[in-house]
User: What shape does this take?
Amino acid sequence: MPISYELRCHVLDSKDAVSIDEARYNELCHAQEVSLHALFIEEKLDLLLENFVEYENELLSIGLRRMVFQRNDYTEFRDDVSLINRRLANLLSACRLYSDSLLRHVNQICSPSKAESETLKEMKSQQCDSVFGYRVMEAIRNYAQHRDYSVQSLIFGGKVEWRGEKQVEVFTVDPVLEPKWISQDSRFKKEILCEMEQQGDTVALKPLVRQYISSIREIHNKARRLVSGNLLQQRKTLESALKDINGCSPAEGGYAVIVDDCGNCTDTVYLSLGPEQQIKILLERNSCLHRIDDCFVSGVCENDVGNEPNET
Assistant: This one.
């Protein structure tokens, strides 16, 4: 059955259609697919970071309530532990989604080359070898999905500090891991459990999570650099096609279609720079320069610390 390939401003309107060959049609399909895979990578990082913010925000909220209200009831304590476990489970699930799909997206963007995905595999191994929080949280992620809650307890702290010439009381909330409890899972990696046991009866979770997220962002930044050349090339391919479509604005998009001998469209691909524009927004939103494990949020007021630097 004879078929033809066309560029159109609207799917059902063949007026001013531009004829193309099969090779260019396939090239345009690939270019649009590449832009979507790049968008999916950025969206999954954004999902991950939003879950991290929700997890950290919950700790701050619990600490504030402990400061303002007298909450000594055991039921309330267990509610707080369950809430943190829920936030952490959401975060770890987002991390799993991101990690498991990253190489697939990069492979699709850089196909047929496999060098880029191999480079990312090496970087993941480097992070696992060099960052304690990364390898612990990778193991905890599997533990939380297949065995039990990650957080067994919360430690509520309170201490008096001098801020300038003023004494203030500082309230903290620290979720902890208990190696002894985790050791009941025979499938948990022995070498990582041994490292945790060296920390004591409990292991503070906050720094581990922050190290983990920082490492993921390092991996993500590497992935961005690896795919940037391919994305630029595919963007030019789409821009060229959209300019060829009479009466079509590149900002609006157009269509590549397959037409049978009866004039019916048998397949269509929407061509748009929309994914590229959304990628740009997410790049700006999620391009924080500092490592998350090197900073923290504090409720300290400038008037409390005198001439000392703000800790926020």
Q: What stands out?
A: The chain is about 60% helix and 15% strand. The chain has one domain: 3-305.
